Structures are given as C-alpha cells and as structure tokens.
Amino acid sequence: MAARIQIINGPNLNLLGKRQPDIYGHETLDDVAADCTALAADLGLDLQFYQSNHEGGIIDCIHAARDTCAGIVINPGAYTHTSVAILDALNTFEGFVIECHISNVHKRERFRHHSYVSLRADGVIAGFGTEGYQLALRRLATLVTG
Ligand code: DQA
Predict the structure, then answer these.
(1) Residue ranges of the chain with per-residue pLDDT less than 50
(2) Which residue out of 50, 79, 101, 133 is catalytically annotated?
C-alpha cells in the first residue's frame, strides 16, 4: 500500500499567488497542490492536502495524521514562530516531519528566524519558493521507503 503523506499549510497561505508575490511568488495553493499530487503519484505516495487559517484546525489535522500517515510536510506560516501548541501536536506524531517555508525566513525579519516547529522537524526547507514542497516530498519518499 502507498505511504500516505499529509501536506499542511497554515494561515494566509490560501492567498498564495495574490499575497506579496515579490516574496511568495505567483503560484497559487491550488497550483502547488496540483504539482504535488502529480509528483506524489510518480513517487508512489498517497497525498492529502490541507490548509487552515486556524491553529486548532492545524492541530486537529496533525492528530488525524497519527496512525494514518507516514509523514507530514508542514508550512505553519506565522504559527512557525509562535505556536508551542503546534509543536506539541507534532511531538505526538511518530512519522517523519519536514518543515517547509517558501521564503528564506533567515534572510527576513529577526522574529522569523526562530521556529518552534524546527525542534521536531526531521528536515527544514526554506527559500526554494513553492518548489520546496516538491523537494520535501522527494525527501519523504526516501525516508519512508527506508
Ligand atoms: C512562511 C514564512 C513565515 O514567516 C510567514 O509568516 C508565512 C510564510 C513561508 O512560507 O515563507 O506565512 O512560512
């Protein structure tokens, strides 16, 4: 059976393509989902895609991934820098976790340099634009097939 992967996007990422395109590019979240779905099929992964502007929704999605998913790709948006609750939820998940940021957060404001999620992530991707999601999927494919 194909390993199931959950991609999770946090607040404001529903506006991808319209929101600060100089930083986040012109691709929409639907474009990202379509690209990832095609790649996942090639890699033999079963992909689920989720976005929420609400911390609790993201936490519920992480809980639902427990026992059903082998890996999570998460771009928690601004919650990256603030949410102990999302870190705690990820710590209940036993599969692989890749943290993904479209922009290079380390080149930006100081408050974006700290990530709670990085304390749990098995890998971190930042600054590769929306291509980062595909890089994360490729890495998970390697990890889940051992
Ligand atoms: C982001 C970086 C965060 O600092 C920001 O709050 C976002 C998007 C990124 O993908 O580059 O919403 O996670």
Answers:
(1) none
(2) 101
